[in-house]
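Let's practice the habit of predicting before peeking. Look at the sequence and jot down your guess about where helices and strands might fall. Then scroll down.
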Amino acid sequence: MKTSQRFFLIGTALFFFGIIGGFSPYLSWEHRLFKIAIVGTFATIAWILKNSKKQSRRKTGLVVILLLAAAVAYAEPFASDFIFGHHHHHFFCGK
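Done guessing? Here is the structure:
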């Protein structure tokens, strides 16, 4: 059972990395590193909340992570533009 939970977390992290455009061949290494840091942070937060001793944290952890991931998916092009001066456009970018 533990292996399937790790597989699900890694698969979800890779899926989110793909959604925010991490697999694009046109990205620079700085952009890709920025995206890896974002996904790694969310995966760590999700893992900590999922393995928490408190039942309320485990229940609300998924909702919090999903809302944060949606916010990052929307704001990531703007943050890349602010940090690096340019960004790769996504289908949801709006810029």
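How did you do? The chain has a mean pLDDT of 76.
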